[in-house]
Amino acid sequence: MGEDFLQNFEIAIKVNNLNLWYGDNNALKEISIDIPKNKVTSLIGPSGCGKSTFIRCINRMNDLVRTCSIEGEVLVYDEDIYNEDIDVVELRKKVGMVFQKPNPFPMSIAENITYGPKIHGIKNKNELNRIVEQSLKAAALWDEVSDRLDKSALDLSGGQQQRLCIARTLAVNPEIILFDEPCSALDPISTAKIEELIMNLKKDYTIVIVTHNMQQAARISNYTAYFLHGKIMEYGDTEQIFENPRVKSTEDYITGRFG
After folding, report:
1. pLDDT at 255 over 90
2. 156 neighbors 164 (Cβ within 8 angstroms)
């Protein structure tokens, strides 16, 4: 979008004229956006407006949908991720994703963390132990589980499971982390912990988060994009988006944008 407010920042993700179809349904329409490095960018808007579909384009999760077709350009650190030479497994290592519902694997806490590193060739036990501790500390979970790493991850609370999923993502050393409504299934205390964690993680990672919670977007994000009917209606500094929005229409109010 050539946003002036980003001119002093390195751009991690650059999207140009992205269109996506599920069969005949044009779910994303001419999306262009620059997302800065080491910032939190929130995607807001009503259900079904294309937010989750969009972030799934950034690590090619939509490849798994048989009826999906895409036109346009998605650059991650200037590399076109839809180039036919791209290794999608390596892309998803670089661009991690945390989903709406916590989805720990039915194995121990430690095995959840080491699963990814082992796939990518790390076998040394000492190195794997280091990754477990480092990842759990980064996800603010180490102090709560360090004495039961061999216990099932399914025994953790919902909030702990979601932080474990974040730790599992961090274990493969990504550069970008996508969050798809990571707090929607959590209680307020767990939500606060995840929000604090996200704000801490932006020092080392680029964060893109889909959220229906306007207050959450206002609390944790540097920049916010408002989606409606598969289009970006507005994108800018979060404070400006909420305090002095440029988009003011009857439809915004009907869909709850300012309600």
Report:
1. no
2. yes
Task: Name which of 25, 159, 182 is nearest 98 in CA terms.
Answer: 182
- Dig out the tokens for 101 from the structure: 């519902």
Cβ atoms < 10 Å from Cβ of 170? 24
Give the model confidence (pLDDT) of 198-234 as tens digits. 999 999 999 999 999 999 999 999 999 999 999 999 9
- The residue to which tokens 């077709």 are assigned: 69
> Which contacts of 247-254 are long-range, i.e. CB under 8 A and separated by 24 or more positions?
252/228
Beta carbons within 8 Å of 62's beta carbon, 6+ residues apart: 20, 53, 56, 68, 70
b/e burial code for range 128-156 (CB count within 10 A of at least 16 → b)? beebbebbbebbbbbeebeeebeeebeeb
CA dist., res. 85 & res. 37, Å (int): 24
CA distances, 74 to each of 12, 57, 96 (Å): 11, 8, 16
| Tokens describing residue 20 | 């996506």
Q: Supply the pLDDT for residue 243.
A: 85
3-state secondary structure of 34: strand
In terms of Cα–Cα distance, which of 37, 41, 43, 40 is closest to 9? 37
Label residue 259 by pLDDT band (50, 70, 90): very low
Which residues on neighbouring strands pair with residue 224, listed in sequence order? 42, 236
Task: Fill in the amino acid letter for 29.
Answer: K
Residue that the structure tokens 């910032």 belong to = 39
Over range 191-200, report the average pLDDT. 95
Question: Helix, strand, coil % (nearest 5) of the chain?
Answer: 40, 25, 35
The residue among 130 and 252 whose pLDDT is bigger is 130
* 41-72 tens-digit pLDDT: 999 999 999 999 999 999 999 998 999 999 99
